[in-house]
Amino acid sequence: MTVTPYNHVLDGLPGDELLTGLVEGRTVAKMEHGVELAWCFDIPGEKGVRAGRETAVFALRERPDGLVSFGLGGPEIGVGRAQFEPFFTAAREAGLHSVPHARETGGPATIWSAVHDLGAERIGHDTSCAADPALLAYLAEHRIPLEVCPTSNVRTRQVPSIAAHPVRRMLDHGLVVTLNTDDPPMFGATLEGEYLAVATTLGLRAAEIARLAKNSVEASFLDAAAKSEMLAEIELVALRETGAEA
């Protein structure tokens, strides 16, 4: 789950209260719903280098339980990825994973910068990497996961419709694509809804839907045992559905 500490503190919420809320929410989610939450602290890129510095300092100083990654969100046009390199370097050296947004509204150069300058291990919101064949090949070869949010992409007018969404082409090129909701309250999205929309509109087979689900597990920062358990569960469902299709 992505959290933007800088915005909350800027709006007057004390940092210790934010951390207390995260701890309490994580505990309740585990006890009442069996859901284990992990955090990504991200930089609101439009607020510049100061936001990057303060987000990194807050993340590394406080380091709450469950913090696993460091991100970069907000508008991309006019917000170069490279300016945040020192903060991503510090976060990676402290053991956090690099998960910046890139190439929803910027060009392919935004993704190259996210990879080379920020050490991206996963890229958020990529919608048109196919415009650069070299980039497409690089992402496929290095198995860098792409977090795709179809409903959000349509509602922010990055693509005209689900039918026009490039997720099918991404899969066909062997990219590690995952389906995500972005901001559920803002976009009226659910994860089930994303799968249904993509599967029905683009005509995905059961095996392809299973591949998307497996990609999400493999792209996560779960431990190996948890990944194996979830992948086995997906495989069982996929075999049953594939048999039904046959």
The gist of it:
The protein is of the alpha/beta class.
Q: How does this structure look, described?
A:
By secondary structure, the chain is of the alpha/beta class. The protein has 2 domains: 1-124, TIM Barrel (Alpha-Beta Barrel), CATH 3.20.20; 128-246, no CATH class. 54% of the residues lie in helices and 11% in strands. The protein is built from 12 helices and 7 strands. The strands form 2 sheets. The chain has a 4-stranded parallel β-sheet. Helix 3 links the parallel strand 2 and strand 3. Helix 3 runs parallel beside helix 4. The longest helix has 22 residues, at 224-245. The radius of gyration is 18 Å and the shape is globular. 31% of the residues are buried.
- As a whole number of angstroms, the C-alpha radius of gyration is 18 Å
Protein structure class: alpha/beta
> What fraction of the residues are assigned to beta strands by DSSP?
5-15%
Number of strands: 7
Number of structural domains: 2
Mean pLDDT: 92
How many helices does DSSP assign? Answer: 12
Low-confidence stretches: none
Query: Describe the biggest sheet?
Result: 4 strands, parallel
What is the terminal separation in angstroms? 38 Å
CATH architecture descriptor text of the largest domain: Alpha-Beta Barrel
- Report the CATH C-level class of the largest domain: Alpha Beta
Shape: globular
Binned, the helix content reads 40-55%
CATH fold naming of the largest domain: TIM Barrel
Order of helices and strands: EHHEHEHEHEHEHHEHHHH
* Spatial arrangement of strands, main beta sheet: 1-2-3-4
CATH superfamily of the largest domain: Metal-dependent hydrolases
